[in-house]
Write a structure and sequence with these properties.
Structural class: mainly alpha
Helix content: 55-70%
Order of helices and strands: HHHHHHHHHHHHHHHHHH
Strand content: under 5%
Shape: globular
Distance between the termini: 17 Å
Number of helices: 18
Radius of gyration: 23 Å
Largest sheet: none
């Protein structure tokens, strides 16, 4: 069940209807604790139905990780605090390692030492396991650190980990951001619904119109890069940058929109990453929930920048290498993370030079920095997209040797780049007019007016009319 399916539309309508019934009952009962618990049980059941739609056995795994987090976080005592936090961290990581990395590490070990393997274990990779594992770790660690109190209600912990809008592809939500909302009057309202449905519609447009249509071109080039002209390969590299942004940010927008319709707030996961002037800024704008998670639960515990410059750079590299491996069990993801780690280290080193601030304020330098950062990030995406190093090297060879071959000026790739440029410019103009920081391109219409409804339904009609109708799952479902 995916956000861009008719099945989900029916499922979400049923959930909204059940939640609306609790609103009516809440008016009569003056929002008693009984009604709050009823709402949470409805959402929890819906979340497990949503996840079980892929494979019901995976629900048992998620339930097991939830039990571990609940027991370990709720069993802290002065004498056994460290034991419980170790169990609460090591067990989920062990489960993640078995399901996601067992074959990868065994194969890599055999390759290094020249050992032959009879075959690989056929292990099912549960969709979204990396996301809800990180959330369970966040809860356990934050309780240990004293940032939040251990929940007495197992239902609340289970709902925090399983909340279906962000379950399978984020954003990664911290317990301190979500659980307090369970104690508030969070329900379906007209204001929340009209805001949430617009976020969802915008995300749907990004996914099924831009990302999915571009994917047919990018997939064709990456399948056999040696056949295409260097210009076509370059366009495919740039197109994939647009595709992965629209695919993943589109999912995040839909997740935020679904949660908002139900009365809950999730943090935004993207903030126009391709206007970044350096890689450090890029990671403050791209997959924000993951970058902040890695910062808080990995980089800082490793020592951050508190133990000297050399240790700072080592910590940055380790964080990005692990972040790359988090995305997938392949050395291409490690290479992708390593390139970003190296770029972060170089930028930190460059920031300490005299005159950096003046250069940063120069308009021409800023424009060139944005272009340079986009080019670097796009080239790094080659390792992310390529199935193996051989394919990645073929793409690089096609570009840097100015390879001759088939010319394919994809109209969807050009349209996608154009839409991204226009939306970015619109967000920049809006921020200048309102005197606020750029927060992404999220226009809001007044759906209680005829003009607002007319524009919204025209946008929805355009989205459905231009939608790619083939099967194309969200990219980040594999992580």
């Amino acid at each position: 069940m995916t956000f861009n399916s008719l099945t989900f539309a029916i499922f979400f309508a049923i959930v909204c209807g059940l939640m609306a019934l609790t609103n009516i009952n809440a008016i009569k009962a003056k929002l008693s604790d009984h009604i709050l618990r009823l709402r949470h049980w409805v959402l929890l059941l819906a979340s497990y139905v949503f996840y079980g739609w892929w494979n019901w056995k995976c629900c048992l795994l998620m339930l097991g990780l939830t039990l571990v987090a609940y027991i370990c976080a709720g069993s802290y005592s002065r004498s056994r605090r460290k034991l419980y936090v170790v169990l609460g961290v090591v067990f989920p990581l062990l489960i993640l390692g078995i399901f996601k990395y067992f074959n990868f590490f065994i194969d890599s070990f055999c390759d290094v030492f020249g050992i032959s393997r009879a075959g690989s274990l056929n292990i099912l990779l549960p969709v979204g396991i990396s996301f809800y594992t990180f959330q369970s770790l966040s809860y356990t660690i934050d309780v240990y650190r004293g940032k939040i109190k251990a929940e007495k209600s197992f239902k609340n912990v289970a709902l925090y980990i399983a909340f279906f809008p962000q379950l399978v592809a984020g954003p990664i939500v911290k317990a301190g951001e979500y659980i307090p909302q369970l104690y508030e009057d969070r329900n379906i309202s007209l204001n929340n619904f009209q805001m949430g449905i617009q976020f969802f519609a915008l995300g749907l447009f990004k996914k099924i119109v831009i990302a999915d249509n571009i994917s047919t071109f990018a997939d064709a080039v990456y399948e056999c890069p040696a056949e295409f002209h260097a210009i076509t390969v370059l366009l495919a590299v740039a197109a994939y940058s647009v595709q992965i942004y629209c695919d993943f940010s589109g999912y995040s927008d839909m997740a935020v929109g679904c949660a908002k319709c139900l009365g809950y707030d999730l943090s935004r996961n993207f903030n126009l990453p391709y206007i970044s002037r350096n890689v450090t800024e890029f990671w403050k704008r791209w997959h924000i929930s993951l970058s902040t998670w890695l910062m808080e639960y990995l980089y800082i515990p490793l020592g951050g920048n508190r133990k000297g410059k050399a240790r700072r750079y080592i910590n940055l590299m380790l964080t990005m290498l692990i972040g790359g491996l988090w995305h997938g069990a392949a050395w291409t993801f490690v290479a992708w993370g390593g390139l970003h780690g190296l770029a972060l280290c170089l930028h930190k080193l460059f920031m300490g030079r005299p005159g950096y601030g003046k250069m940063r304020d120069n308009a021409l330098v800023s424009a060139l920095s944005v272009l340079g950062t986009f080019c670097f990030v796009s080239l790094c995406w080659i390792f992310f997209r390529a199935g193996d190093f051989r394919t990645a090297m073929e793409v690089f060879a096609a570009i840097f040797t100015w390879q001759q071959g088939v010319m394919h000026p994809s109209s969807w790739a050009l349209l996608g780049l154009g839409c991204l440029a226009i939306a970015t410019l619109a967000a920049w103009i809006r921020s200048r007019k309102l005197g606020i920081a750029i927060e992404g391109y999220y226009p809001q219409l007044e759906l209680n007016t005829v003009p607002g409804l007319l524009v919204f339904f025209c946008f929805v009609g355009l989205t459905l009319g231009l939608a790619y109708t083939g099967e194309n799952p969200f990219i980040y479902f594999q992580f």
